[in-house]
TrEMBL record:
Record protein name field: DUF2723 domain-containing protein
Keyword ATP-binding: no
Topology within the bilayer: Multi-pass membrane protein
Pfam families: TMEM260-like
Biological process, per Gene Ontology: lipopolysaccharide biosynthetic process
Key words of the record: Cell membrane, Glycosyltransferase, Membrane, Transferase, Transmembrane, Transmembrane helix
Cellular component per GO, a single term: plasma membrane
A GO molecular-function annotation: pentosyltransferase activity
Domain of life assignment: Bacteria
Organism the protein comes from: Chryseobacterium piscium
Main location per the UniProt record: membrane
InterPro entries, sorted: LipidA_mod_glycosyltrf_83, TMEM260-like
Subcellular location: Cell membrane
Regions that span the bilayer: 75-93, 123-141, 153-178, 190-211, 242-262, 274-292, 298-316
Length: 419
């Protein structure tokens, strides 16, 4: 295969996987809220942690002006960015590893990881957000290798734009500061890069000001107490957070975690000028995801997982110098079997029976342990059937019913049940 076509084929490979495994019916979670906004075709003029300004307005633009159905739009807004992000990840890894099979294998490992695959299978902002993060990482590394105006300017631009997608990306500002400090001798280029970032970032406050929204709501939701709850956690709760983040790592990267110690040694030994930036990028994003007090914090780990997979790749590279690990590339395609096996084992345990019954309305353990959502239980049909459950899903029911009311103008109830 021509090396130039590898990114293209990698993109097509994951585009096919993600599209085929995408939700058959609108799935549970925050996606219904996004879908409802897109169905209404009303652009948002608020830049808040829950509005995801660039993500939502891009989806509304595609629906309103490109005549794409809202559900298809939201599917594509997860599937296409996910495939593109994995392609960009390959390019990022190639900045460190010249061997194509290693870069491809590592890209596949992350692409088939539970967290990333699930984000690609449902309606969520995280794969769209991943594009801007990986672009920031690519041009940051390029800047540390060659601090040209182009590289530094794009670094500032991509970090600034990422804030318009998800405010979580402020956790990458410390890494950007480290980058600027390391390249402090390139004063002119640094000034232009920092100015572009500041302009794009500060524009968020201007947009909120014009919309008569207090500046603080650029960072705060006004509806949840997640930040307060995060700082109120006791020592035992913090330990549980750490344990949970480790279990997420195991479920996402399983046997490939054994290469992490070697990878850390490799990056510190042979890429010392890049080590501070890589370390800070990981620590701030990983710690935020670990301790942020929300029930679905697993999705916030994606930015740090880009660094994890890079370190795994460097570990493989280090060990491959002594042993031929090329056969390891075929192991990556067995990752789905790991999820299937884990699900079957968990389903056979007596301890999980109550949980399966309690979460049956979502699809039981399969919803939580299998990353794909093909043939899933839909939240619209669940809402219309009005089945009683223990969980508080009133907001989801409300959003679903509002969506149904809009759709009934051009679809009957039976057709809507299948969405």
């Amino acid at each position: 295969m021509n090396k130039k076509f590898i990114p293209f084929f990698l993109f097509l490979f994951f585009l096919s996987i993600y599209y085929l495994s995408s939700f058959s019916k609108v799935s549970f979670g925050d996606g219904m809220g996004f879908l409802l906004d897109v169905e209404k075709e009303l652009f948002t003029n608020q830049v808040t942690p829950l509005s995801h300004f660039l993500y939502l307005n891009t989806a509304i633009f595609l629906t309103k002006y490109c005549n794409v159905d809202s559900i298809m739009t939201m599917r594509l807004m997860s599937v296409v960015p996910a495939a593109l992000s994995i392609t960009l990840l390959y390019i990022f890894i190639k900045e460190f590893i010249s061997e194509n099979w290693m870069a491809i294998s590592c890209s596949i490992v992350l692409g088939l990881s539970f967290t990333f695959w699930r984000s690609a299978s449902t309606i969520e902002v995280y794969t769209f957000n991943a594009i801007w993060i990986i672009l920031f990482l690519i041009f940051s590394v390029k800047s540390l290798k060659k601090p040209s105006l182009k590289n530094l300017l794009l670094t500032g631009i991509f970090l600034g734009v990422s804030m318009w997608v998800h405010i979580q990306n402020i956790m990458l500002i410390p890494a950007y500061i480290v980058l600027i400090y390391q390249l402090r001798n390139s004063r002119k280029n640094i000034f232009i890069s920092a100015s572009s970032f500041t302009l794009i970032f500060s524009s968020m406050f201007l947009v909120n000001y014009l919309a008569d929204i207090h500046i603080k709501y650029t960072f705060l939701t006004g509806t949840g107490t997640w930040i307060e709850d995060t700082f109120k956690q006791g020592f035992s709760e913090l330990l549980k957070d750490l344990l949970k983040s480790f279990l997420f790592l195991v479920y996402n990267f399983n046997i490939f975690l054994i290469f992490i110690p070697l990878g850390i040694h490799e990056i510190f030994k042979n890429y010392r000028n890049l080590f501070p930036f890589i370390a800070i990028s990981f620590l701030f994003t990983f710690d935020f995801a670990t301790f942020y007090a929300v029930s679905d914090n697993y999705v916030f780990f994606i930015p740090s997982y880009f660094i994890v997979i890079l370190i795994i790749g460097l570990g493989i590279k280090s060990l491959n110098m002594k042993y031929n690990l090329k056969r390891l590339q075929f192991v990556t395609f067995l990752i789905p079997l790991f999820y299937i096996g884990s699900h079957r084992i968990a389903s056979s345990l007596e301890a999980t029976k109550a949980f399966q019954q309690e979460k049956a309305y979502k699809g039981g353990l399969g919803y939580y342990m299998l990353p794909w959502l093909h043939n899933n239980v839909g939240c619209i049909e669940f809402t219309l059937e009005n089945k009683p459950i223990i969980d508080n899903v009133e907001e989801l029911r409300k959003q679903s019913l509002e969506f149904v009311q809009i759709r009934e103008k051009h679809q009957n109830r039976q057709e809507i049940m299948k969405l």
